[in-house]
Amino acid sequence: MQSKTVLSSIICGLMLSSGSAIASDLKQGGTLTVPIIGTGFVENYNPYTSKDLLHGVMFEPLMVFNNMTGKTEWRLAKSAEYSDDLKTIKLTLRDGLTWSDGSPLTAKDVAYSFTMTKENGAFDQRGIWTDGNLISIEATNDTTVEFKLNQADSTFIWNLEKYHIIPEKVWSKVSDLTTFTNPNPIGSGPMTEVKYIKTQQMELCRNPNYYLEGLPHLDCITYRSYNDNSQIQPALMKGEIDWGSNFIADIDNTFVAASPENHHYWYPANDAIHLYVNTKEAPFSDLELRKALSMALDREAIVDIAAYGYPTVNFNAGGIGELYSTYIDADVTAKYKDLTTYNPDKANQMLDAAGYVDKSGDGFRQTKDGKRIEFDIEVVNGWTDWIQVVQMVTEYFEEVGIKANVKTVDWAVYDSSLKDSKYKMSINWSLVATHPILAYQDYYSSSRIGKTWHGGHGVHSPEIDALIDGFGKTNDTAEQADIIKQLQVFSAENLPFIPLFSNPTWFQYNSSKIVGWPNAENPYVQPVWYDGGKRVLIINNLHLK
Q: Which UniProt key words apply to this protein (predicted)?
């Protein structure tokens, strides 16, 4: 067994980095303006029920596993160490941490922030309690928290960055945390002070007691609400927005050309985008139908036409895309390539052979009991690029006699449909994480059912749970690589989601007033606004020009 110091270094990176551009000569002040697609803002500062507005802004993560650099960016925590048997994690906080009101932030707050999610299961975002492996979380002194596990799990630590650290003195006194709106919020992130909130705009300003001296350089962040991407595009062009994380059509001509010196974008590889299929309902329970639907899609045309060529076509049926390109098994991709190759003739043959034929003569196939196969594909209202993608998908399905409809829904409906398996088919992303094993946990671990958007498809088993759990019980890289290959084979053979493409990381920025942005020349982090950990690294690097 390797020493705990070496093992911890392998798992965590253990490279002390603030991820921040602390320099005395950088200008202080200024306001960053960002767009949010939605119906407006309400006075809710609960990070678990306010979508993704507050993590990394009002609430600081313990650490950030930076998939762009391979480093662990330590935030509230300064280190983490596994025991030799991989059953105990000792997490050490920075000294002298405080909340934004100046009161101490201690290990008791951290322990409470995790134990609270056991009683409030909707907040247990990574399912750390569900599978029963986590025994306890204890603050052993003011700066140390110990996580004790029943069984070895070298992946457990990767979950910790996703939980919000909250003040026990406030939250422990609330009877129903699921409806708690956290008025007069106390936070630990760079921007904690609510300057104002209006229906279409909200502004958060500098934490007066931020733990990183001299940061943030900026004074405030202004959130502006927009109905959809089409409203954001002209706002970006006019310079009303500094940081965009949305699809922009024909970006070189519509955004960059308006001010080539200041309007920029960088689209590194991101998550795999799939059509998630609810296999618990007929006819989607039929694997042959799922295969035929996959083969009916011309992915290259969808990317070129509906997505303006920005994504990368995903011909890998194994469940992962370009974000994890070094883990994609070429043999698996080649073996199952026919599943992702556009072949409507073969799709028609498979549907005929499976007994799905057009008995009524209306051009659409029926099930064996005579019911027309018709279903909705859910997509969020305002997500114009994905709406176009889904529209093209329905047209390709119609070419093989399958009737599908575009169904645009509000975020709340989309969220609950995916988590509660209330969809027939839905377009959604896959987990962006430190390692693809976490994406497979999200897809298949029984403990994730009902807690994630990606586990409601119905393809689960004790055997696949054991395979996934086995990854964390070993530190043998060859064994871990074999598990990842087996999971790719399992995904291809069961096809609970139909791969489409690897999304680009949507990232546009305006450098006329604010600089310090990540880009291809300085790729210090993947530029994802919707990931709180990555967001805080960028916020702390930005400053006035």
A: Signal, Transport
